[in-house]
């Protein structure tokens, strides 16, 4: 019995735990990423992204592909085809589960696609998943889901039966 208690105590000492500052660090990383995007500072945003990160967007040619470079291609395309982009977040929450951090909530993106001054607003939910690399929290996965104004059209996901 004593040996089991010693083994459990040793295991507890070996398992990494989140520090009290981790949530503040994730918050600062997330807010810095949003500030960089709003300033059109792609490099500043990419500084918060892990080299092997995954990005899942509702659009973008590299959505679902791995790597910081794929993320950079999507954002470069976004910045070269739009103007006056502004990201706003609300209801943001931060969590740590084990050694993984999360920032999640709702977003609004106001953007001009045609250069004629007409802003379009997109809204939805986001999740940023973080991992700590050399003492810094980096985005390991981004996921954005647009809020739909109406349900998706009905479609049958089953294969059709051909006679």
Distance between the termini: 69 Å
Just give the CATH class.
Answer: Alpha Beta
**Oligomeric state of this protein:** single chain
Instruction: Report the order of strands and helices.
Output: HHHEHEEEE
Helical fraction: 25-40%
Number of domains: 1
Instruction: State the major sheet.
Output: 5 strands, mixed
Q: What general form does the structure show?
A: globular
How many alpha or pi helices? 4
Low-confidence spans: 3-16, 150-157
Mean pLDDT: 79
Widest β-sheet, arrangement of strands = 1-5-4-3-2
Classification by helices and strands: alpha+beta
Rg, please?
A: 20 Å
Number of strands: 5
Strand-residue fraction?
35-45%
Structural overview:
By secondary structure, the protein is of the alpha+beta class. It is built from 4 helices and 5 strands; from the N terminus they run H-H-H-E-H-E-E-E-E. The chain has one domain (19-146): Nuclear Transport Factor 2, Chain: A (Roll). It is globular, with a radius of gyration of 20 Å. A 5-stranded mixed β-sheet has the order 1-5-4-3-2, covered by helices on one side. Strand 2 and strand 3 (100-112) form a beta hairpin. It is 30% helix and 38% strand.
């Amino acid at each position: 019995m004593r040996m089991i208690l010693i083994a459990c105590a040793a295991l507890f000492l070996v398992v990494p735990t989140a520090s009290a500052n981790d949530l503040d660090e994730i918050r600062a990383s997330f807010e810095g990423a949003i500030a960089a995007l709003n300033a059109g500072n792609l490099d500043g945003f990419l500084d918060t992204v892990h080299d092997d990160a995954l990005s899942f967007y509702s659009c973008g040619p590299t959505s679902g592909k791995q790597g910081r470079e794929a993320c950079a291609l999507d954002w470069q395309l976004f910045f070269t085809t739009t103007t006056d982009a502004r990201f706003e977040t609300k209801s943001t929450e931060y969590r740590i589960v084990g050694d993984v951090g999360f920032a999640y909530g709702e977003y609004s993106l106001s953007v001009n696609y045609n250069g004629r001054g007409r802003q379009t607003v997109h809204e939805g939910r986001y999740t940023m998943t973080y991992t700590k690399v050399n003492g810094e929290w980096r985005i390991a996965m981004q996921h954005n889901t647009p809020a739909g104004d109406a349900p998706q059209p009905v479609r049958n996901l089953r294969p059709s039966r051909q006679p």
